[in-house]
Every structure is written in C-alpha cells, then in structure tokens.
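Researcher: Sequence recovery benchmark, item below. Answer with residues only.
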C-alpha cells in the first residue's frame, strides 16, 4: 500500500486529543447557552414576526456550531498547533475591550472607544505603527459612525467627537 497513511505508518505520529480545544469548545457552548437563556428574558414587542430575541439566538446557534466543530476536531487531534503561549496579545485585546467599555461608560462615545479597541487589537497582532493605526482607527470609526447614524438612523453612544459631527 504505497501512499497510504494508515495507523501503522511510522512516518505519521498518532494524533492526540487536544485538551485545550475541548475546553474552548466547552466555553463556546457555555456562551451559546448564556445567550439563549438571556434572550428568553427579552420582552417581545412585536405581535408577529421576529422580535429582539431573534438575533441572540442566531448568534448562539453560530457559536454552538463552532463549539461542535471545535470539539470534533479536538477529539481527532486536527486542530492546528499553537504558535506560542505568549499572553501579551490576549492581554492587549482584553485591555482594548476594557477601554471600550470604560470610554463608553464615561461618555467618551463610539468613535474614541472603537478607535482604542482597534489600536490595541492591531498591536496584539504585532503591528507597531501606533500613530498610523490611530489615524486609521479614527477615520474608520468616523465613517462607521456616520453610516450608522446618518444612513441607517441607528443611534450609537455619543461623546465629544460625535457631537461635532
């Protein structure tokens, strides 16, 4: 049997169950369950059709599918090898999320909050052009804000920059 990579092939080491992948799958499934539980508590204001509880359920279904796929791949050992265990990128993204919440909470608005998240996320992915990333983030955040506010007439958190627009 040439070219066959069976279980007895010495060139292919046996794959092991990826425990971290199983933990990630469980966390995804738990997040999906929380979303469905939370969506059940939303009051539906529509007499027919979909209400506000529909979108969290759709997101929960997507997360559940990701959890199932991740679980199967973790059991088979098919998940890609992790490059490193460097916690800095994760910490940077968490700092960005904390900044997003804090800036919106203290009245800084959508543009500044989203820009902070963009800059910290780009730094987490290894980019070191903080000034250029800040400019890009401000321009993108302003365009997104204008699209939501003016075109879609959806309100976003306002702050000093949003009041200028």
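Model:
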């Amino acid at each position: 049997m040439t070219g066959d990579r069976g279980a007895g092939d010495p060139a292919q080491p046996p794959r092991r169950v990826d425990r971290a992948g199983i933990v990630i799958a469980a966390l995804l499934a738990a997040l999906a369950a929380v979303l469905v539980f939370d969506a059940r508590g939303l009051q539906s204001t529509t007499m027919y059709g979909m209400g506000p509880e529909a979108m969290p359920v759709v997101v929960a279904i997507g997360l559940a599918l990701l959890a199932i796929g991740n679980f199967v791949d973790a059991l088979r050992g098919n998940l890609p090898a992790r490059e490193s265990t460097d916690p800095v990128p994760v910490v940077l993204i968490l700092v960005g999320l904390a900044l997003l919440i804090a800036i919106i909470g203290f009245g800084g608005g959508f543009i500044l909050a989203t820009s902070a998240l963009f800059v910290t996320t780009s730094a987490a992915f290894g980019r070191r052009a903080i000034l250029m990333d800040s400019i890009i983030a401000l321009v993108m955040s302003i365009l997104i804000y204008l699209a939501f506010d003016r075109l879609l007439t959806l309100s976003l958190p306002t702050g000093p920059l949003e009041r200028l627009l």
